[in-house]
Amino acid sequence: MAKKKSIVVVGVVFAMLLCSFVGVASAGDLAEQYAPVLYFEKDEECYPVDVSYLLDDGNSILRNITIEGNVISYYDNVHGTVDNNGVIDDYKQKEGSLGYTVYYHESTEYGVTVIQYWMFYAFNKGEENRHESDWEMVQVVIPFDGDKWVGYSQHYSGQRARWDQVEKTGDHIKVYVARGSHANYLRSYSGKLGIANDVVADNGKVLSPGQYTLVELNSQEWLDFDGLWGEVNSVEDFVLGRAGPQGPRFRRDMSGNYMWEGSSWGSNLLPANDMLFNLEWFLYNFIMIVILIALLSLAVIGARVYLRNKKYGLGPRIVSMFYIDGFN
Q1: How many other CB atoms are there within 10 angstroms of residue 137's CB atom?
Q2: Residue 35 DSSP SS3
Q3: Is the per-residue pLDDT at 176 higher than 70?
Q4: How far apart are CA 138 and CA 121, in angstroms?
Q5: 213-216/101-109 β-pairing
Q6: What is the 3-state composition of the chain as percent helix, strand, coil, each rounded to the nearest 5?
Q7: Contact residues for 309 (Cβ-Cβ < 8 A; gap 6+)
Q8: Helices (H), 27-138
Q9: pLDDT grade, residue 126 (50/70/90)?
Q10: Are 125 and 46 in contact (CB under 8 A)?
Q11: pTM for the model
Q12: Nearest to 189 by CA among 161, 293, 159, 198
């Protein structure tokens, strides 16, 4: 009996040590392993920053407003409003000292590990909407017995993709960030399809792991703030995209799904389609394709004219006085 108890105790201790080892090996390590490479368009003005930019040094005021009987709290950036570039100008002045920050959140649910990367921006200056502050997210989903996949946030929805559809550097996923709106795309030529009319490219700043600070979200005191991270003045602001967003734990998509609920949120996203990638590439390069076709057509026409008239020259067919034949 004593021998059996010893075996059980040893087994329990071994299991605890194994779990402890796995926890130490995975906590934070997975976040670093899959940390994104962020590609920005050349005219982008705001980059992922630590939330302290807004909360510290009197940069914001916590205000309350009543809209249709509901009291809403929000952080109002004192350096500008939705209608001007004051916030952007202030951020750009401080960018060098602020550096860059990406937050991460790891969770395990129903046999799936989800690693989320949240980016906070000082201002959203999208093609179709403007508001103070911006929260966007990408995630890597790792099933215990299946293939990995990703989810990229895009405005009030997003896109999911199989692991083999994702552009990567090693295991680091590549994320192409739309200018101003900071929606996240799987390709540098995406964004043209859809009402947001996002401008996406890889011709600007590139932030790779090591060039930004990776910070765990669960350790942040402000994580439980359920108000808005930017100014709001009326119910119309929500409709027109002028209201600040909610933070990571409270942000929802158009269907009411919480983005914080990783795999269930991502499962509801529109799946990436390889044929759609081809169409986006064609639309993105349409003008260049038209120019190349025009130049090629001109070259073919010129060559045919030259070959047809090589024996007698072009003179008689253009201006007869320019035709030269010996002394004539």
Answers
A1: 21
A2: coil
A3: yes
A4: 14
A5: parallel
A6: 35, 30, 40
A7: 317
A8: 29-34, 52-55, 86-98
A9: confident
A10: yes
A11: 0.80
A12: 198
Quick check: 261 and 103 in contact, CB under 8 A?
no
Are residues 117 and 128 in contact, defined by beta-carbon separation less than 8 angstroms? no
Contact between 30 and 111 under an 8 Å Cβ cutoff? The reply is no
Tell me the β-bridge partners of 72: 65
Domain ranges of the chain: 24-271, 286-322
User: Bridge partners of 75?
Assistant: 62
- pLDDT of residue 312 exceeding 50, the answer is yes
The pair of structure tokens assigned to 124 is: 């959203």
Separation CA 141–CA 115 (nearest Å): 6
pLDDT band at 294 (very low <50, low <70, confident <90, very high): low
The span from the first CA to the last CA of the chain, in angstroms, equals 123
Distance CA 67, CA 242 (A): 14
Per DSSP, the residues of 149-176 read: EEEEEETTEEEEEEGGGS-EETTEEEEE
More confident residue, 314 or 282: 282
